[in-house]
Amino acid sequence: MTSQTTSQFARPRIDIRALLGLYDPADTTDWGPIRAAQMNAGSQLALFMLAANVLGATLIVLNFASLVPLWKLASWGALVAAVGVAVAFRRLAVRHRTERTASLSDVRDTMLDGIALGAVWSIAPLLFGSFADVQALNGMWIVLSILMVASSVAMAALPLATISFLVVLGSANATALALTQSPALGAAALLFTLLLVIACFARGKALVVIRAGEIALAERDETVSLLLREFEDKSADWLWETDAQRRVCRANPRFAVSLGVDPKAINGMPFLQVLAGSAWESGNFAQGLRTLADSLKKREPFRDILLPVIVDGEERWWELTGSPRVNEQGAFIGFRGVGSDVTEARESANKISKMARYDTLTGLPNRLFINEALATAMAEAEKWNARCAFMMIDLDRFKAVNDTLGHPVGDRLLMRVSERLKQLMTPNEMIGRLGGDEFAVVVRDANDSVAVEQLARTIIDVLSAPYDVDNHTLYIGASVGLAFGPRDGRTAEMLIRSADLALYRSKDAGGGNFHAYEPQLHVEAEERRVLEIALRAALENDQFHLLYQPVVQAGTGALMGFEALLRWTHPELGPISPVKFVPLAEDARLIAPIGEWVLRAACMEAAKWDDPIRVAVNVSPEQLHNAGFASFVSRALKDSGLHPSRLELEVTESVFMREGTAAVQTLEAILDMGVRLSLDDFGTGYSSLGYLSRTRFSSIKIDRSFVQGASKGQKEAIAIIRAVVALAESLGMATTAEGVETEDEHRLIQALGCTKVQGYYFGRPLPVTEARTLATRDSLQQEVRVA
User: What pLDDT was estimated at residue 258?
Assistant: First the structure.
């Protein structure tokens, strides 16, 4: 600690505003303990001041008993007692909270106490003074003066409260004297009050200086204690020295004490024998001792050699550093160095290492430890020409638990899952948690592939059994991806990648099963990677185009509009099916810019068609969850000149499955523009009637699977179509049947009541020129048959 810092602690800067509790200075002084001392002093004399107030009020009452009506005196005395009790209890109540430190507001709030007491005491001179004779007035002023002097002395530790009390009461006293006696006496009372205020402030400042000095001394003592303790800790190191024959010479007492032996007993003993202890005879030396022996033999300096030493039957860990010594002639005369006991530090390091390798929630090995164990298992398998295995486990439907019941329940469920997995493990397997709801298993010896696959099935069965968590019965499942090393990967990273691909296949198949890695999975993943790279450049390179499939009136075959269908032709890969690239675009977060291009291009083309032929554009959920999508639709309509009523957006039921998003608000904003809205693939997914009543759909599209089923006579499909048609009619919506390919299907759809039809029977998706020709000729009443 520097002299400057010590000076700051010895003579702290006492700011008047800080002393009063009006602000917190930005200096080096810690005012929290000082304010605590102020509050503590005030609480210690709280009962004394309460007694002084009660006694003073009693004397005033007795003094004016014959001059002032008794009820007035009693009321005033009760008021003084009540305020005095309230102030006393307020100060006693904060005593424990402000024992060590107090805030600015704690001190500042005491001003209210002073003002309250001053106000009730001011009633006596202002109200009772006009009724009094000289003797009564003298008695009152003596009592008030004594009370003010007592407050300025006893309560000086809280200057803000005391000064507030003195100013209020002194002003009232001076006013009463000036009115009833003479202005000179009033001025004298003000001077008396001012002197008490100065005395109170000076005494309060002195108390603060004393307390600040005590704090400074305590901090200085603590600093010195820390320095001494640091010196003692450093002295735990000890010196050692050997001669040219590597024997201990001039044994350091602390070195001998650390070994638990007499210094004289080890003088002349071989240094390595002293360190080896009982292992000297057996020759079973630790690697650290062998490293030390090699350095001593080569006469090379060394540092931080770690080795175990047995002291009183307990294993301790020492760290040694040393360098060779030479005499004046340059001849080697031995070693000298320093040693220290690092057992506690090593234990702490082990604990830190464990924390870094184990999951804090489940206690299972974490991703780092799993990777290390897998690398070791693969090295052993490579060494012995054997096989190991790696499983990746992903919980099915776990996200639904988190979303509906909250993360605490989800965490407890993960702990139950980990307990079940632990029970399945043998010494041949290691189970760990990769993160989230993903777990992994390292199988060290996987030569029996049938047993490994059976373990995967068992894991799925065990994890799929119901769980009871917080009075909830929860049902989840598991999907497993399995890979064998080194067949499916020569490194741990490659094997994990293979297991991940297998897990992806299991999840893609619906979950609840396991899939072993196949080379085809890597081919598909590579194809997907190449396709994604190409897809990112497709929009910039103008590789997309639109086809337009006619939508006709079911009864007359009149053209109602077109559905815009996106197509991608790559210059090298050729035409790529939307079944492949649309899901890829959604996963790669490319569907939004691609969707905007489709909407803009479709609006530009539809503006060239005859009115009122409409264009329908599919919109992805990701676009609708973007709050700026409504603005984009408005710009696309404005730029193209297309009337909003001629644009129809098709959305799927999945839009409504995500709660708390802006999708519904976005749809409402689009509908307010006059754009139509169609519900696509109704009945194949979520199928909730709630959003049908909340959202203004203009039509419902019936999936082609129901149309094909109905054409084959399936009663369920026919019943579903009839129900959808009835529902749409009751809600004032049209119905569009998709995938109508034959005349029989068309007649059936007509009979079932669908209003619009779309499919190959009326027209395949057309290039832009053919669609424009069809949409710009006067043929709205003619049957459209573009086979």
Answer: 78
Q: Which two tokens stand for residue 325?
A: 């010594």
> pLDDT tens across 355-392, in order?
778 998 998 999 999 999 999 999 999 999 999 999 99
Task: Specify burial of residue 313 (Cβ count, 10 A radius: 0-12, 13-18, 19+).
Answer: exposed
Q: Cβ neighbours of residue 67 under 8 Å, at least 6 residues apart?
A: 128, 131, 132, 133, 136
Q: Are 524 and 751 in contact (CB under 8 A)?
A: no
Query: What local confidence, expressed as pLDDT, does residue 2 receive?
Result: 38
DSSP letter, residue 129: G
Phi then psi for 506, rounded to 5 degrees?
Answer: -65, -45
**Minimum mean pLDDT among 10-14, 492-496, 711-715, 737-741: which range?**
10-14
Q: Is the dihedral of CA 361, 367, 368, 373 positive or negative?
A: positive
Report DSSP letters for 615-659, one per residue: EEEE--HHHHTSTTHHHHHHHHHHHHT--GGGEEEEEEGGGGGST
Least confident range of 59-73, 447-461, 534-548:
59-73
Nearest CA-CA partner of 652 in 676, 694, 682: 682
User: Which residues have a Cβ under 8 Å from the Cβ of 40 and sit 6 or more positions away?
Assistant: 95, 98, 99
**Contact present, 342 and 318 (Cβ < 8 Å):** yes
Alpha carbons 285 and 271: distance in angstroms, whole number = 14
Q: What does the alpha-carbon distance between residue 694 and residue 668 come to, in Å, rounded to a whole number? A: 10
Yes or no: say if 695 and 677 are a contact pair by the CB < 8 Å rule. yes
Closest CA to 138 of 125, 119, 148: 125
In 10 A of CB 261, how many CB atoms?
15
Nearest to 564 by CA among 647, 643, 633: 647
pLDDT at 735 over 80: yes
Torsion of CA 660, 666, 672, 675, to 10 degrees: -130
Which residues neighbour 149 within 8 Å (Cβ) at sequence distance 6 or greater? 196
Total count of residues recorded for the chain? 787
Q: Calculate the alpha carbon distances from 156 to 31, 88, 95, 146 in Å.
A: 17, 16, 17, 15
Q: Is the dihedral of CA 628, 632, 638, 644 positive or negative?
A: negative
Residue 762 to residue 705: CA distance in whole angstroms: 18
* Residue 445 pLDDT: 94
Question: 23-76, pLDDT tens digit by residue?
Answer: 666 555 667 777 777 777 777 777 888 888 888 888 888 888 778 788 888 888
Stretch 295-299: mean pLDDT: 90
- Give the mean pLDDT of 665-681: 88
Look up tokens 């030390």; give the residue: 292
249 Cβ contact partners less than 8 Å away, ≥ 6 residues apart: 241, 242, 243, 267, 268, 334
d(CA 604, CA 600): 6
Say if strands 699-702 and 429-435 run parallel, antiparallel, or are unpaired: unpaired
Q: Which residues contact 557 (CB under 8 A, 6 or more apart)?
A: 762, 782, 783, 784, 785
What per-residue confidence (pLDDT) applies to 639?
94
The 3-class SS string of 395-430 reads: EECHHHHHHHHCHHHHHHHHHHHHHHHHHHCCCCEE
